[in-house]
Amino acid sequence: MPELPEVEALGAFLRERAVGHVVVATHVAQIGALKTYAPPLEDAVGRAVVGVARYGKWLALGLGPRGELDARPEGAQLYLVFHLSKAGWLRWREDMPPSASPKGRPMGRSAGPVALRVWLDDGGFDLTEAGTRKRLAVHLVADPAEVPLVASLGFDPIRAAADGELTDLLGAALRTRNQQVKGALRDQHLVAGIGNAYSDEILHAARMSPFALTRSFTDDDVARLADAVTSVLAAGLAQASGRPAAELKDAKRRGMAVHGRTGQACPVCGDVVREVSFADSSLQYCATCQTGGTPLADRRMSRLLK
């Protein structure tokens, strides 16, 4: 799943290529991907892209008034807001097929079938989603806050770090209820933009068990976790910055220390990276770095390590 660093890079990519260009056609190939019906998607046609904003793992393309090419971002009248979910991606196309051609054909196994296609006056893009579980979501709204999952997002860790508020906001979020820290970092209502991969990386950098209970955290624990959030996300942003959309997935994988590296050596201590599997996901960790050398039981109902 693309997380905050990759979504931020996709936003920058779209800013460079799409802003100032007019939407000339749209097509929804997976009808379930479009979550709104009023205004209709056709209302996006004839409007220039005037800005791109990120909200956690969501992107919003601001669309100006029809017929105006120089509208400022704050003058957007509509927003095309989308979330790529677990298996979605954005594929930019310099050579878009004619808008009258078949629109929903698969674009290659790696990209997955097209969910939404947007033609611009110069190029365009597909939102694709692989797999059988379709969760990619697209909304056309007058304000991104009209999307309930955007309106309910927690604080943005990158912006909070830049403002010097990350430690305080993170501490308040962790103490809202007693839960495993891995789940708290992934809870978009608490912290916006961190998913399965970067939460593994953050907890490894902080030398914390993914099953540690948040209410047990001291002020020093919170500060250590905040430092890890800052450093890991900053490294992810640096790794993704300036890369075309097609290269972001591989760049993310290369930057991981433990996530997706089960059975390999921990780059810090040399111990083997271990995994805990759940019904539809897994986490990776280093026992030496994070759990005092004790492996976690590989089942959901294992006794939690504090």
From TrEMBL:
Residues 2-108 form the Formamidopyrimidine-DNA glycosylase catalytic domain. GO terms for biological process: base-excision repair. Keywords: DNA damage, DNA repair, DNA-binding, Glycosidase, Hydrolase, Lyase, Metal-binding, Multifunctional enzyme, Zinc, Zinc-finger. Residues 257-291 form the FPG-type domain. Coiled coil: none annotated. It catalyses: Hydrolysis of DNA containing ring-opened 7-methylguanine residues, releasing 2,6-diamino-4-hydroxy-5-(N-methyl)formamidopyrimidine. Belongs to the FPG family. This is Fpg/Nei family DNA glycosylase. It comes from Miniimonas arenae. The lineage of its organism: Bacteria, Bacillati, Actinomycetota, Actinomycetes, Micrococcales.
